[in-house]
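Case study.
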Amino acid sequence: MITWGISANSHDAAIAVFDNSQLVFASHSERFSGKKNDPDLCDSIVNYANRWGKPNEIVWYEKPLYKTARQWFAGQGFNHRSNNVKRYLNKWNISAPISTVMHHESHAAGGFYTSGYKEAAVVVIDAIGEFETLTIWQGSEQGLKRVYSQSYPNSLGLWYSAMTQRCFLKPNEEEYILMGMAAYGDPNKLYDRIRNDFFDDNSNKLVALKRNLHRGCRDWAPDLTVNDIFDIAAATQHVYETYFNRIVSKAKALTGSVNLVVMGGCALNCSANPIAFKHFKNVWIMPNPGDAGSSIGAVLAKTQTQIPWLGCDLGYNLKIKTAPDQIVDHLLTDSICGVAQGRAEFGPRAFGNRSLLADPRGNDIKDTVNAIKKRQQFRPFAPVILEEMADNYFDLCGNSSDHRYMQYISRCRHPDLFPAIVHRDGTSRVQTVPRNGTPIRRLLEEWYVMTGCPMLLNTSLNIKGKPMVNNRVDALNFESHYGVKVFT
Amino acid sequence: MDKLRNLWRKIFAPYYRWKERKRMAARIAALTKEDPYIYK
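After joint prediction, the assembly is written out as follows.
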């Protein structure tokens, strides 16, 4: 039986395909359509998903009727027709019985049923679900039970997006840039002002806002100019961490568990995520915790069964494997190259199958890669390192195996040796690679043998403004656009 | 005929007000070309 989980018609469409209880495919629509953060499905992803057979059942990641009610309540109009799932899916001739699950339930199930934990506290934080913005669940063998919930407009995610827009960035998309900017500002300068202006700490809610931020807060603090945005970013991140700490400790108090699962778009905040280890022994964050990951979560919420998480390699399959010594030879001479091989990663991060790799040593490489990718100069890159060597180079929270998907920042012990992968605050977003025989593992082993350096700089392989490379044509386009060799 | 039209519009005044608001909102949205809501 083929079941499709679909998350679409909002801001980052995705399809997950289950063959009985086995997850066989998951991808963002953007990889196939070429439109970054494509909110809609496209013909090519639907055709690709059909390779596993026509779906017998569709599970939609949220309840359209509740969403319509919330949009109407928020003054966004009566969108009953555009939210009609059957009508929406008919555009791509997808016809199968449709069931729907609640938005936060999709998130919670996606995290809990891929965690491998028999019981856990599950925290879901995002901008808005149907109405819910923050939920805490207790996961057990009996299923998921909601133990705390709060609703629109009190939303930590929505506030973070509003602050992103206040810093002249694109809300609902460029929050990660705000997080990166935070290291350059003073976190205490505007901390009290932001807390006093936006948050009501006298409320019995975990997060209570003084105003509805659905339309942003561009009018907030007109005295602060473009010169102050790094301080705004730093204070925003600091305030976020304060509330994240409060939410996680509440989850501990409500569930008493030693295991925590964090989901929702806010779970991508890798600067704040290490706080979770202060309260919980084990932490799991599904590598794609946002709405696109809910395509998996929707099906799991329906089936309520644990599945083994075998990695993010769930997307388009490029049946190519380049010999690692070829790539290492190129890196030794040119310091930088692209790699596109195997299945594309499902999620916002590249873990070695669609990566731009570089030698992390030396002072020039960060500027070189930033120039190629046309990114802001202040943004750092992530290291990918042999898992057993990671402790020698970074102060990791939790175990080194917790860091396989770049969900946490860690302090680098040798920032002077690897300036390209160290941020202004001395931290790195580490990806560890276990002994699993994958191409990126074999490449790192070969690189270590040749150089004595166990890590590489790893960033996603994409042209600016475009989604990550998906197929061979995209890879060749990247190569011709930037003049950087891509092994594919 | 005009009297009948006026009577019709008087009876259904709330509907016409709603329609006018909707038309104006669509016009403003088209002019600004930017959704004021940061989340759909």
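Observations recorded in class. Chain A has 16 helices and 21 strands. Chain A touches chain B through 19 residues (CB under 8 Å). We will return to this complex in the next lecture.
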